[in-house]
Design a protein that fits this description.
heterodimer; A: alpha/beta; three-stranded antiparallel beta sheet; 7 helices; B: mainly alpha; MetI-like fold
Amino acid sequence: MTLLRIEGVGRRFANGTEALRDANLTIAAGDFVALLGPSGCGKSTLLRLIAGLDAPDTGVLRWGDGAANGPGMAAGEIGFVFQDATLLPWATAAENVWLPLRLRGIGREAARADVQAALGRVGLAGFEGARPRELSGGMRMRVSIARALVGRPRLLLMDEPFAALDEFTRHGLQDDMLALWRDAGCTVVFVTHSIYEAAFLARRIVVMTPRPGRIATEIRSPLVPEPAARFSSGYAALVGDVTGVLRTAMT
Amino acid sequence: MSRWPPTIAGLVALVLWQGAVWLTDVPAYLVPGPVAIVRAFLAAPALLLGSLVSTLIVTFTALAVSTVLGVGLAVAITSSRWARAAIQPWAVALQVTPIVAIAPLIIAWVGDPFSALVACATIVAFFPIFSNTAIGLASPPTELLDLFRLNGAGGWATLRLLRLPAALPFFLAGLRISGGLALVGAVVAEFVAGAGGFASGLAYRILESGYRLQIPRMFAALVLLSAAGIAIDATLSGVGRVLLRRRGGA
């Protein structure tokens, strides 16, 4: 089932920068799409347009099979994970995860079970009362992911969420991300500038190029979405393919 | 940090001061020694402490008014671009106008002496709370504001759950500066008002003692003033620390 159809979408900023030109992309429910490209290719702009945080200058975003334009989803149906964990520093991990539910009027007690389940899913059971400054960078990102998942979003948008983490932590989170995607059953759009990350995580790798930002091509992953795929020959081949496509697209 | 170094340095200074006064035999109406100052205080403790209370009432009233005004206007300029354009330049104008220059006007315009003193002290104390709180309210990163938008939060929820908590440490830093300034403002206003004002604050005692050449009493009033300033600063910084610790972090 089609979740979102992006048709001829472009965005030019007030300073004249053309961040995105004529983007066409169809996202099916349950997809895991990576938007891959160097900085300035418009991948974050596209993500913000999908989130409804910004509006396109040209083209439309059609939600579902209907012709609806605009935000398309009710508040809270979109989960967003930023490059920084952006937690409330004065609130505990549980209070941070509660936040999206709280903004929808769900009280602390009513949210407790969901909050605990979300923290459990990201491997942070027992850390409910910890403040962000008491947690490592990777753990803070896990809280941030739990916060995005707690409202059972239909669409999870992630903007280079693991870029600031060390490699060991990043691998751990990538492995867990695959399991979370499988269990949560939601659609994921994942922005990254790492070929390795895109190849490992995504079912579809959308390659983007800069100046102006545009979608160059798309590669479907033949890999089985599980941690062991990292050590398969298929993974190495896919990384090689994507690298080649990116290089051609850039010239 | 240990409290010993300032205590010892202070005691040494007091001993040297008293020694110099004895050795040079300078009259007390020119430079009174610490012993004469303590004697002057003990001669009329109720008078001086009463004046201290009077000045402190003006100070804390002004601080309370500054807090309400400062936080209120900071919220206003954060919520509306129109309010920002309308308020900001006037707040700065008020901040840079020397209080001694406008105090006579305020005292003449505001009939009630207590209100006039509070108004002067508020003008001096208001700005740090206002500008610090405004910076704090604007401090949450765009990503967090986006997150609130994505979850359908309105202006009130964003203010209550994000902007105000984020502004707390900024507000407390401003409050601490304003505490000292409120005392300074109260004293300046009392000076300008002179006998026409409340006729009871510490600044009035300083003026009065000067006219009567009761210089040791004047010094005693001065010492009380700086002790009050130090106590206000210590109290406000303590309150800030406790508030931030209780909520578990800045």
